[in-house]
Amino acid sequence: MADRWMDSHRRDAWRRKSKDSGYRARSAFKLLQIQERFNIMRQGDVILDVGAHPGGWSQVAVESVGDAGFVVGVDLEPCEPIDGCTFIVGDVTEDEVQRKLVGCLDGRDVNTVVSDISPQLTGNWVRDQIISLQLVAMVFDFSLPLLTAGGNFVTKVFQGEGIENLIELVRPRFTNVRRHSPEASRKSSAEVFLVCRNHTPWSGTGYSIRKQLELSFDAGDESEPEPAATGFRLHRAR
Fold first, then answer.
1. Distance CA 213, CA 137 (A)
2. In the chain, at which end, N or C, are there fewer CB atoms within 10 A of the end residue's CB?
């Protein structure tokens, strides 16, 4: 089975295309296809790339916003520099990293958040699914206050129990929320992307999508995990 996967990986057309095009990962084509379909980034925009390593999505973002735009990426692992992008190394759920990120923005609102994150998988699908949704909810909680009115948010999630709950919690914050599977996603993958457009900021404070999501989990399920302390470690199978 491992040999078949490696052979398929070597023959992956999107992987070959990414190398030929100079992108750092095949996942760059997922964001390119989302951009072509939904036009989530424009010239001059400020983009936040969460879970940026190795930088493929940041490359696409820089190309989309041009010289007048600004891209900031954050990840636990360092990325090779990209002209037009500032990288921050650290866990975006930690206060110190969030302060660094806000400082990089220098008072500018974010036009679009893009996030291709997934947890470090354990092999327990139920546990991994819950942690993945908690991870996405934490990104929403931090970044929505930074997102300008009319802004966009794109994030990877995994199909499974709880995804509908997350969508219902996010839907009031945008005028349009939909699931989308780019052509570049592997057919065998359970990943799907939430494309949230036209942010409608709330005036109230203290509302947590993560807390509401956790309340929606089955309270009687004793196997429900606590959020992973190192939640933003990426799964590298791209």
1. 8
2. N
The CA distance from 100 to 106, in Å, is 10
**Residue 30 appears among annotated catalytic residues:** no
Residue 231: inside a domain: no
Per-residue pLDDT 10s for the chain (238 aa) are 454 544 455 446 656 555 556 688 888 999 999 999 999 999 999 999 999 999 999 999 999 999 999 999 999 999 999 999 999 999 998 999 999 999 999 999 999 999 998 777 777 878 888 889 999 999 999 999 999 999 999 999 988 888 999 999 999 999 999 999 999 876 667 889 999 999 999 876 678 999 999 998 854 454 444 444 333 333 333 4
Write the CATH number for 37.
3.40.50.150
Residue 4: inside a domain: no
For residue 38, tell me if it sits in a domain.
yes
Check: CB of residue 108 under 8 Å from CB of residue 151. Answer: no
Helices within the chain (DSSP H only): 2-10, 13-21, 28-38, 56-65, 95-105, 125-143, 163-170, 209-216
What's the pTM?
0.84
Tell me how many domains the chain contains.
1
Point out the catalytic residue in the list 17, 30, 156, 187. Answer: 156
> Would 75 be classed as within a structural domain?
yes
